[in-house]
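Hey,
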Amino acid sequence: MQELEKRLDSLKEEFLKVYEKLEIAKKLQKIAKLEREVAEPDIWKNVAEATEKNQELKRLSDETQPWELLKTQINDLGELISISDADLKDEIEGQIDAMEVGFTELKKSLRFQGAYDGKDAIIRITSGAGGTEAMDWAGMLERMYLRFFEKKGWKAICLERVAGEEAGIKTAVYEVTGSNAYGWLKSEHGVHRLVRLSPFNAQNLRQTSFALVEVLPVIKADTEVEIDDKDLRIDVYHSGGHGGQSVNTTNSAVRITHLPTNIVVAIQNERSQLQNKEKAMEILRGKLVQMQLEQHAETIGELRAGESAGWGQQIRNYVLQPYKLVKDTRTEYEETDPESVLDGKLDGFIDAFLEL
């Protein structure tokens, strides 16, 4: 029992160090404050603010609950060891084994210490040159990420989706809500390359296709990223495509151009012009932050137009023919079962990137 007690003490000591580093106690105080605020009957007079506070409350609760549970388990087991005899040794050892495994998983939270890692994410998938082949490949990536989100228990809301004429998609944009969503997904930002035998030509020739995946942090507050109004050109126009009569007969679509960087964001998904403008600004802030990270710029004002990753950064190759392999060009991590990867098995690639 003395050996098990030492193991538990060692686990508890390391646990408390990480618990403090992640400021769990401070986050619990924030949860208590938010719980009081959302319980106020007048909070829903401002729906946007109420929604944001509820989302923040859920995010913090999801983040802290596993740590509080493990803390309770460690303390309870310490008390059990102090009053137990040798008959319970195997059971106690099994509980310590399980807690050590759980703690190893929880420690991965330490990897998400970037300024925006705790944010939700915008993911945009765009087909490259190559017509139907490229659009089909973009559609395969869309499915891959949706399966990954599903396995993580995350919520994905489609902001825009333009289907291909014959197959796949031209572009799709999703807002992803989940614990450290941007921190997890930032590794996917870049060009993804597919090599396979083409299902779209009679000769069944080997074909290479490309798709661009952009991952942006969701930044709702304009105080986090200051953008000068004079740097924006805002155009309003008729929405097109699906969405019902009111979408097609009102000037609800919004296109925002950030003049210094030539970034253009267009949204027509929401029914009101104001909602589309807010969502477009949210995406623009994320794009500017992503450029800032890529260019190592201290301020938005230092950004240089045309110097983002774009189509120049090929990050991963998916080979279905003549052999089967998915390999990341940055980490050298690889998987020999492309079907599983395309079904959402991305943890290995993401873990390898986060360990860099």
